[in-house]
Amino acid sequence: MQILQVLEQNSLFFLTSIALLGLLVGSFLNVVIYRLPLMMQRSWLYECQTFLEQDLDSPKEAFNLSQPRSRCPSCQHLISAKENIPVISYLLLKGRCMHCNASISIRYPIIEVVTAALSVATACHFGVNVQTIYALFFVWVLICLSLIDFDTQLLPDNITLPLLWFGLFASLFNVFVSPTDAIIGALAGYLSLWSVYWLFKILTGKEGMGHGDFKLLAAIGAFLGWQILPLVIMLSAFIGAVVGILLIVFKRRNKDLAIPFGPYLSIAALIALFYGLQINGWYLAFSGL
Question: Which of 146, 157, 182, 202 has CA atoms 20 to 30 A from the CA of 221?
Fold first, then answer.
């Protein structure tokens, strides 16, 4: 408790610590975003080969979130610790590999900075209390899921389901909502998009979204409660529609081309996390309910 008092009295130290933590987490998220889909692909290939009783590929080096060490994709130079300091290393290296001078994607430091910025925003909003811990985890996972979905149009069960269970666990302590609101939120979140999916498929014969979207909205409902779901659904649909129209108009993108919905759900969930109660209050006051 004394540590909490020190942090409350020294907000600059608290926010600086959160920012540094956010940079480190952002660096780790870069690894997860890149490696987890490849890990899943390898696992699926192995399962298919096993099912078809085919000869399995010869064993390769371990590939997971910790092995092998990060390498330059151009020259396979192993990235040392001093080359892997969030943002700072990118700036010192001027965005290029130390060994072969190949360009390093600016996406990596951007993810680190965005993670740090959202972490600080979360800490400012909730202050020095247990809500900040749970909210930070929620924000970090949403960042990770958004970018994986953007890259691969996948929302891995390895992440969405633990997020769902963690939201239900948080409700036991009434961190954001009560257990009843969390359970109803999880059910309503899943079933709402599940119903839309099947209605769209029956009417058009096409799949309008992936099952991962159901699970993500269920996790959002578990964290924030069923009351916030209409706002999240409307905001995500609005943001998705705007982005889709812009892509069609300015990038001549095929209107039938699939667009990942996970990032829009995540953006809407972040808005709801910070301003959901106020927005719902404004709506109720405006509608006279």
Answer: 202
In 3D space, the residue among 25, 24, 258 whose CA is nearest the CA of residue 149 turns out to be 258
At 71-125, the pLDDT tens digits run: 877 887 788 888 888 898 888 888 888 888 888 889 999 999 999 999 999 999 9
Question: Please, what is the Cα angle at 150 between 32 and 190, to 5 degrees?
Answer: 90
Residue 20 CA to residue 224 CA, distance in Å, equals 27
pTM of the model: 0.91
d(CA 134, CA 215): 19
Written as one string, the DSSP assignment of 27-77 is: HHHHHHHHHHHHHHHHHHHHHHHHHTTPPPPPP----SSSSS--B-TTT-P
Whole-angstrom CA distances from 5 to 13, 132, 133, 258 are 12, 15, 16, 50
CA–CA distance, 258 with 153 (Å, rounded to integer): 9
Query: Which pair of structure tokens corresponds to residue 264?
Result: 């829009």
